[in-house]
Write a structure and sequence with these properties.
The chain is built from 2 helices and 14 strands. By secondary structure, it is mainly beta. It folds into 4 domains: 77 residues, Omega-AgatoxinV; 33 residues, Complement Module, domain 1 (Ribbon); 29 residues, no CATH class; 37 residues, Thrombospondin type-1 (TSP1) repeat (TSP-1 type 1 repeat, Single Sheet). The chain is rod-shaped and about 130 Å long.
């Protein structure tokens, strides 16, 4: 009876089939006449606009008021999850990418990484380890960077510091360590090529020390 009221014969369909969003295949409508985009999980549906049966979806009218359409849901209230337009069943394991693996659980999904997140410390045989993406491989790998390349990078960083010096800062020079004769004074300052705080020293002399008296007379 519903089919007789809603379906017209013969069928009149557009020449160009509709372009469906990702994860929504082309299917025949409820009249079995024209091709339409199958409705996905949670989308509205009715007699004409059918749900994607390949994903186990049916039109659920349980929460719809009289005279309105339903919502695409799993049959027998089976829970699932949707990722990138694709619906996965409860307990199904899938990989959205080669780096992670996920499992559909209670309407959501839990994922674990497939690539090791290890940390490599410098060693004598590999003083400058670096993690890089390798063409054709999913997970990044550790490589030992050549020392001359590292020295070149350090030289570039030092030249950048020289071109853009930091704001100078320093303490006053301390008192001379000796009351007479040569001594030294200290201060903390960042006035160096790397703009790092360091302790600096310089020689100082307040007054010359007096000559010591001769302990014994000179013997000819």
């Amino acid at each position: 009876q519903v089919c007789a009221q809603l379906c017209r014969r013969p069928c009149y369909c557009p020449w160009v089939p509709p372009r469906c969003p990702r994860g929504s295949p082309l299917v025949l409508d409820g009249c079995g006449c024209c091709k339409i985009c199958a409705r996905r999980l949670g989308e509205p549906c009715d007699f004409l606009h059918v749900c994607d049966q390949s994903q186990g979806l049916v039109c659920d009218y349980s929460s719809a008021s009289a005279g309105t359409g339903g919502t695409c849901n799993f049959e027998d209230d089976e829970e699932g999850c949707e990722v990138n337009g694709r619906v996965y069943r409860e307990g199904e394991v899938f990989q959205p990418s080669c780096k992670i693996q996920c499992r559909c659980l209670d309407g959501g999904f839990n994922c674990i990484p497939l690539c090791q997140e290890d940390v490599r410390l410098p060693t004598p045989d590999c003083p400058y380890p670096r993690r890089v993406e390798i063409p054709g491989k999913c997970c990044p790998e550790w490589i030992c960077e050549a020392q001359d390349q590292r020295l070149l990078q350090d030289a570039r960083a030092a030249s950048a510091l020289l071109r853009f010096p930091c704001q100078e800062w320093g303490t006053e020079w301390s008192a001379c360590s000796a009351t007479c004769g040569l001594g030294f004074a200290t201060r903390v300052s960042n006035q160096n090529r790397y703009c790092r705080l360091e302790t600096q020293r310089r020689l100082c002399m307040l007054t010359p020390c007096p000559a010591l008296p001769a302990a014994f007379p000179a013997v000819s």
